[in-house]
Amino acid sequence: MKHSKKNRGRAGRGNRRGFAAMGKKRQREIARMGGEAARRKYGPGFYEDIGRMGGEAVRDEYGPEFYEKIGRQGGKAVRDEYGQGFYEEIGREGGETVRDEYGPAYYSEIGKMGGETVRDEYGPEFYSEIGRLGGRSRRRQSGRSGTNPGQRGGAARRRSRTRG
Question: Residue 85's Cα: distance from chain center in Å?
């Protein structure tokens, strides 16, 4: 049904009644009261539960790749707005917070757990392989050629002299 100019209400916004006719501030107050009432009635986990169910519904409809895509887009938007240094700063602050809360030994603990997980998943030979690849890369960067199979590098040679 078409509204005539006579029925359009305030400022030409149509025939608004109830919640829609209220100002934004009053709408927020009422919404807040509704949220508080739901929390009192259903408990603090209510919003966690409905948030999780919503996230699962989105995942089921669009797949986990959807989250990867929007996460990348969000990361790029933050980088573009705040610069690459922003990530370096928040990473450093996060690391300092963890160190202050758990102590420096915590990093050794989680490093060991991570190493054991990798070993269990890929096998101990994996470390030999990545060590070889890393050594080759370092030699290429420094312009040195590889050592003979029986020859030890400088640091290993120095260590063996001090031990023996």
Answer: 16
Which residue did the predictor score with more confidence, 133 or 6? 133
Regarding predicted confidence, which is higher, 48 or 139?
A: 48
What integer is the mean pLDDT of 38-67? 92
Buried b (16+ CB within 10 A) or exposed e, 145-155: eeeeeeeeeee
Q: Which two tokens stand for residue 3?
A: 């509204």
The predicted pLDDT at position 1 comes to: 47
Please report, for the chain, the start and end positions of each structural domain, with discontinuous segments joined by +.
Answer: 31-82, 85-141
SS3 annotation, the chain:
CCCCHHHCCHHHCCCCCHHHHCCHHHHHHHHHHHHHHHHHHHCCHHHHHHHHHHHHHHHHHHCHHHHHHHHHHHHHHHHHHHCHHHHHHHHHHHHHHHHHHHCCHHHHHHHHHHHHHHHHHHCCHHHHHHHHHHHHHHHHHHCCCCCCCCCCCHHHHHHHHHHC
